[in-house]
Design a protein that fits this description.
It is built from 9 helices and 12 strands. The two termini are about 25 Å apart. Strand 3 and strand 4 form a beta hairpin. It has a domain of about 220 residues: Metallo-beta-lactamase, Chain A. The strands form 2 sheets. The chain has a 7-stranded mixed sheet. By secondary structure, the protein is α/β, with parallel strands linked by helices. The longest helix has 22 residues.
């Protein structure tokens, strides 16, 4: 007897949205664990892409969408940070110069091919068909910002300036179009995740995005949106800081603080178990850990699974 369709089959297919003239977002519903957004800018003779995807199949679909829409080769690939949902597919951009912050390269090189194997074997997430992933770290790096031109269109690739979502977050800002590819500094409809970065740093980095004056934002996960998402994410980040201060003062563990938390306006965000990881990071910072400093990631991920009723976290990638 059939057990019904796989949950992946119920997801809406990825879509290409032209957010400005020649600037495209590649949106992958439903934006939960390991299902990221990418994008691309189509020039007269070549394409610049922003981020790969988590699996071989998803990255091949992205490349096919670029070919169908632009009909030109991808010569540049920008990684907004090192996480695998944005970089696992790098190796399929065979003719592209891969650009990222220098710490993005450092993180990818340090993890190497063992990084994905550890994720697959961890039992933290439900099973994923990753495909024949190969590690392909960026080989053109920067420390603060660079300017990249698509024909005459100037794009600014800017480091966040501090650990935030990770230690190496960057955004792609297109001033002439008012378009911002925010990477995972911004989630739209999903719970932000700071375990490998800094809650305080994320507040600083996200606040700084206001000064750009973006009219259209492509978040790292979730639908294309306007600048109001900045305040929505900041509200969540401040709530994490408050919960951490209250929980720590009460002698609660991050897991117990999360279990007792009233999520209020954030109850509808996807992947609520991320609150536990965020509290682990916030507790560490309250105890004096530097932004992005080493903490017990395995313990935090284990607590996230415990918050999820002991079940692996759902990944539909």
């Amino acid at each position: 007897m059939s057990s019904g369709p796989d949950a992946r089959e119920l997801l809406a297919p990825p879509r290409v949205e032209e957010v400005s003239d020649g600037v495209y977002a590649y949106i992958q519903p439903n934006g939960t664990w390991w299902i990221n957004n990418s994008g691309f800018l189509a020039g007269r003779t070549r394409v610049t892409a922003v981020d790969a995807c988590a699996t071989e199949a998803r990255t091949r679909a992205f490349l096919a969408a670029i070919a169908q829409t632009a009909g030109r080769p991808v010569r540049t690939l920008i990684n907004t940070h090192h996480h695998g949902d944005h970089t696992n597919g790098n190796y399929l951009f065979e003719e592209a110069t891969i650009v990222a912050h220098e710490r993005c390269r450092e993180e990818m090189v340090a993890a190497g091919s063992a990084g994905l194997a550890l994720v697959a074997a961890s039992g933290v997430w439900t099973e994923v068909d990753w495909g024949a992933i190969e590690t392909a770290p960026p080989f053109l790096t920067f420390t603060d910002r660079i300017s990249l031109f698509v024909d005459d269109l100037r794009c600014e690739v800017r480091y966040a300036g501090t650990p935030a979502h990770t230690t190496n977050d960057a955004v792609v800002w297109i001033p002439a179009h008012g378009v911002l590819f925010a990477g995972d500094l911004l989630f739209n409809g999903g719970t932000p995740f700071l375990l490998m970065g800094s809650v305080a740093g994320a507040i600083t980095a996200v606040t700084a995005l206001r000064s750009l004056g973006a009219r259209t934002i492509v978040p790292g996960h979730g639908p294309v949106c306007g600048p109001s998402v900045i305040d929505e994410v900041l509200d969540y980040l401040y709530s994490v800081m408050t919960l951490a201060a209250q929980g720590s003062a009460a002698g609660l563990s991050p897991l117990d603080a999360a279990r007792q938390a009233d999520l209020g306006a954030f109850a509808e965000l996807t992947d609520p178990e991320r609150l536990v990881g965020n509290l682990h990071r916030a507790y560490a910072e309250l105890a004096g850990a530097p932004p992005g400093g080493a903490i017990d990631l395995a313990a935090a991920l284990g607590d996230m699974v415990a918050f999820n009723g002991g079940r692996p976290l759902t990944c539909l990638a």
